[in-house]
Design brief:
alpha+beta; Dna Ligase, domain 1; ten-stranded mixed β-sheet; 24 helices; 33 strands
């Protein structure tokens, strides 16, 4: 009686050998059990399920009539939305909803309902609406933080998986970021921008293993075959019925164009960067017949699986501590963020960005980050085609556009898109043949160029930051965004990179896409991939005072790049004291010939010379083109004997150094370069002041991007 007086709804089980107490207990609403009942334990279990809320939630009318039943939170929402109002009031006044939720560890949701009473609402329908809205919001929050199994019966968005194996490196990184993104508060600074990870489903590595075993494909791991043979064999192979059913059901809910991306197990396990090693395929996914869409999807998955055993992939894995026999492939199926216009589908802007810039040209600093952006699909950036590079922390300092000529030469002139309405055609193993590459005229027709374009006015030899001007060709400068802030892209990237790096406690790189709703103006910033900057795992901090000078060939206080290069056994150099500045052009053919020979033999080299490599003025350096020295893995510029020059940062030549991650060293006043040691070695080739020497053991080039220092040790 005392307990009932304090809480009339508390479930109570009363056990006794005294049957005379049964009537009195039940009069108080207490369940009575006789201790000597032969079914005692079963009746206790019934009490736990029915009264302690460990079983289904049973909707009842006040007279005890059952009117509905829910086994999980999703079903509870469905049943509550249609339950008779008398049942809703009956359960709400007895805290049955909060009891049931607590037993399922939904403590925060239960607490939010428990504190309220009937008197807090004007009607019972208002109670129903409040509970429903609370539950739906809770489900959305959980969905936005959970990696769940794909349920073919429901059209869940978010991040899902099929299979019980690993998600692979790419899948795991994206899944982690998806589950933690609400903690980053990205929306706080840009409330009019929606930050998302696109709807993604990962086929785990056990599906790859099943596919390989079922079709007898394991031989390709150790046998040598052309890529086309591997592709053909994989395309002719079949999935299990269970996988076919999962993929069919999945396509019933995914109707946008899809990217089918590799997610290598070794990428995660060996901490090696596998970007570009395996295949990625994009499909329009727009055919009216489901079986045609399914056929294209299966082809894409099979081709990604097949790329595991391509020659290039096997050679790459062989260069790591891992073995191709250990490789397993997961696949990320991701909705592509974009809009269709004129029969082609692509985002307004796409690209990649890093939170650290290893090539910061003053006044930029490493923490300003680096981004590469383009119109259209991000393949433009990933494949090294023309795009725009800038630092999100200081977006108006674009060294790539140091002159009008450089702007015209280095800016984007074409873009990639997905052609719609062509799903009848089987997928090609060549990723580019499934896409279309279009010019700026098409971008302007689609209404996409105004956001990023300018006009080169030929008569005035100047660039106007608008596509409304006439008098010359369009140029993709991103000036309307970076200079005139039509969209705060740089600020968004800077914010995302800094918050993510701080949260993950590691420098990161992301791939992203941005789309704008033309009607509402709403902006969607989609994060497509997230991964740590793997070279940062090597903690490089050069202390010049502790360098062994007996081993040092170069000690440099003005260097760009980060990491360790330890496979250089060739040095190509020109001593400044032996150079005639009026005859530098005479050396370009010799440099080109040495470069071609070394590249044909797979031998990277250290390139050293006076003034500016790639200078357009022969009196200021060696006027080579990039193609003539592209085999160099590190480049050193030393002072000329009679004039002082600033390093060639900001030129198109410099952009190639950044793009290909070349170590770049500039020797200044107190730095050291041991020409005497270089001269002491007999040359393989000697053409005037140009010498090529081959070393018995490799040099070690150490680049410290934090302090802009570098050393070269023998």
């Amino acid at each position: 009686r005392y307990v009932r007086s304090r809480d009339s709804n508390l479930p109570i089980l009363f056990q006794s050998k005294n049957l005379e107490l049964k009537e009195e207990a039940e009069a108080l609403g207490v369940r009575f059990l006789h201790k000597e009942d032969t079914q005692l334990y079963g009746r206790i279990a019934d009490f736990m399920l029915e009264e302690m809320s460990f079983g289904d939630f049973i909707f009842k009318l006040p007279d005890g009539t059952e009117v509905g039943r829910a086994a999980n939170l999703r079903q509870l929402v469905e049943e509550l939305s249609r339950a008779p109002i008398e049942s809703v009031e009956y359960h709400a006044t007895r805290n049955h909803f909060s009891h049931w939720l607590r037993t399922r560890t939904e403590f925060s949701l239960a607490a939010s309902l428990r504190s309220l009473t009937i008197g807090d609402f004007e009607s019972t329908e208002e109670i129903r609406d409040f509970i429903l809205n609370s539950m739906r919001s809770h489900i959305d929050r959980v969905r936005n933080r959970s990696i769940r199994d794909n349920d073919s019966a429901h059209s869940d968005q978010g991040f899902l998986r099929i299979g019980r194996g690993s998600l692979g490196g790419k899948g795991r990184g994206l899944a982690f970021f998806f589950s933690r993104m609400p903690d980053l508060g990205l929306q706080d600074k840009f409330p009019d921008v929606e930050f998302i990870v696109p709807h993604s489903i990962v086929l785990a590595t056990d599906l790859f293993e099943e596919f390989i075993e079922m079709n007898g494909l394991s031989r390709f791991a150790h046998e040598d075959h052309d890529d086309s043979e591997v592709d053909a064999e994989f395309l002719a192979s079949k999935f299990s019925e269970d996988v076919e059913e999962e993929l069919t059901a999945m396509l019933g809910h995914m109707t946008r164009p899809l990217a089918i991306r590799s997610s290598s197990l070794l990428e995660d396990a060996s901490h090696q960067p596998f970007a570009g090693v395996y295949a990625t395929h994009m499909i329009a996914n727009d055919h009216s017949k489901l079986d045609v869409r399914l056929a294209r999807l299966k082809e894409a998955i099979k081709l990604v699986f097949a790329s595991t055993y391509h020659k290039g992939a096997k050679a790459y894995v062989a260069a790591t501590p891992s073995s191709i026999q250990d490789e397993r492939m997961a696949v990320v199926i991701q909705e592509i963020v974009g809009r269709e216009v004129n029969g082609r589908y692509y985002p307004h802007i796409a690209g990649a960005a890093r939170s650290r810039n290893h090539y910061p040209v003053s006044p930029l600093i490493a923490e300003d980050g680096i981004a590469a952006v383009c119109i259209g699909l991000g393949r433009q950036v990933a494949s090294g085609e023309k795009c725009l590079r800038f630092s999100p922390g200081q977006p108006r300092r674009i060294h790539q556009f140091h002159s009008t000529e450089a702007m015209l030469e280095t800016s984007q002139t074409s873009f990639w898109a997905i052609p719609m309405g062509r799903s009848e055609t089987p997928l090609s193993a060549d990723e580019t043949k499934n896409l279309v590459n279009l010019g700026l005229r098409e971008a302007e027709e689609d209404g996409r160029l105004a956001l990023v374009g300018s006009t080169y006015v030929v008569a005035d030899d100047r660039v106007v930051d608008s596509v409304r001007a006439s008098g010359g060709p369009r140029v993709v400068t991103f000036a309307p965004i970076l200079k005139h802030s039509r969209i705060p892209l740089a600020e968004i990237l800077d914010h995302v990179l800094k918050r993510s790096e701080s949260y993950l406690n590691s420098p990161i790189e992301i791939e992203f896409a941005l789309v704008i709703d033309e009607d509402s103006g709403k902006k969607i910033f989609a994060i497509l991939q997230v991964r740590p900057m793997l070279e940062e795992s090597v903690d490089i901090d050069i202390d010049m005072s502790e360098v062994d000078r007996t081993r040092a060939i170069i000690m440099c206080s003005k260097a760009l790049g980060n990491g360790v290069i330890d496979d250089i056994q060739d040095v190509v150099y020109i001593h400044p004291d032996r150079l005639d500045r009026l005859r530098t052009a005479d050396l370009t053919d010799g440099v080109e010939a040495i470069d071609a020979t070394l590249r044909s033999q797979g031998r990277s080299y250290l390139l050293i010379g006076p003034g500016r490599w790639g200078s357009s003025d022969p009196s200021l350096g060696i006027p080579v083109s990039w193609e003539q020295i592209s085999g160099a893995k590190a480049i050193v510029e030393v002072p000329m004997s009679d004039i002082h020059l600033e390093p060639s940062q900001g030129t198109h030549f410099y952009q190639n150094i950044v793009t290909f991650n070349i170590g770049y060293l500039t020797i200044t006043g107190d730095d050291m370069l041991d020409f005497d040691w270089l001269d002491s070695i007999a040359p393989e080739t000697e053409i005037g002041p140009l010498r090529h020497i081959a070393l018995e053991s490799p040099l070690k080039v150490v680049l410290d991007s934090r302090d802009s220092e570098a050393i070269v040790l023998r």
